[in-house]
Amino acid sequence: MGVHAGKLKGACKGFRKPGTMLGRAAATFTPPASAASMSQRRWRQIPSTLMMVAWSAMAVAAAAPAWAQIEGCEPVSDRAGREFGCFITAREELGALPKTAALSWHLDTYPTRAAAEAAKGPRGTVVESLGHVWLFTIAEAGWRAVGGQRVAEIGPLPLVDAEQYAAVYMEGVFKPGMTSAVHRHPGVEAWYTLTGEMCLETPEGKLVQRAGDPGVMVRGGLPMRLTGTGTEIRRSVVLILQDASKPRATRATDWTPKGLCTP
Question: What is the domain range of residue 151?
Answer without folding.
Answer: 67-251
